[in-house]
């Protein structure tokens, strides 16, 4: 009985992980199939979901002989593009993108997003802002009614010299608890692709219902480089569902 229960527990623990990975894959593949056509400039997001999108993109580029210029949103994205034999572009040469496809940590019913769980929010936001269309790809756990319903922190990228004053200022103005994100080995702070630190803003419940307003106020604090709040930027979201379908929202 003990062995049986262990096996059952093990399969329960492993089940959601497997289905979440396939949910990410079907969402990313659908977005690539729907939005990629020949001769476009395409923003490549960061995170685990976009990996499946880039694999599909590489397959389509090979099979259909497509000419796609890919603009990365991070060191990870740059190497995904190169490792998959795709054409690497840069904003200096291609300041206007046709589409950017990226993941999200949470996305609400109006397609406002929290991003930056992987620490790439600044370049992601710059690239998204240059794109005519920002498309979100995610598994169903990222789909929420309102921001911070499911994802309980907002990442903020800051200049290293200002992290303590920024932490103090935001906590006294808006409450919550800002924690300096540490690197994987916890030996020092996580340093972004841009040489900055990340403050993760944790709170009980939700800090506000006006995320646009709070975003503007935080952006005014000297030393804040950018926030993980992507308000009014995304045009469409693809969610991979547990039953194998893809939910499209716009
Ligand atoms: C990185 C991001 C990612 O896009 C976000 O964290 C989603 O990642 P994943 O696809 O692994 O769920 O914003 O900074």
Automatic annotation (TrEMBL):
Gene Ontology annotations of biological process type: D-ribose metabolic process; pentose-phosphate shunt, non-oxidative branch
Signal peptide (residue range): none
Enzyme class: isomerase
E.C. number(s) listed in UniProt: 5.3.1.6
InterPro entries in UniProt: NagB/RpiA_transferase-like, Ribose5P_isomerase_type_A
Pfam families: Rib_5-P_isom_A
Keyword Transcription regulation: no
Gene Ontology MF annotations: ribose-5-phosphate isomerase activity
Family of this protein: Belongs to the ribose 5-phosphate isomerase family.
NCBIfam families, A to Z: PRK00702.1 (NF001924), rpiA (TIGR00021)
Name this protein carries in UniProt: ribose-5-phosphate isomerase
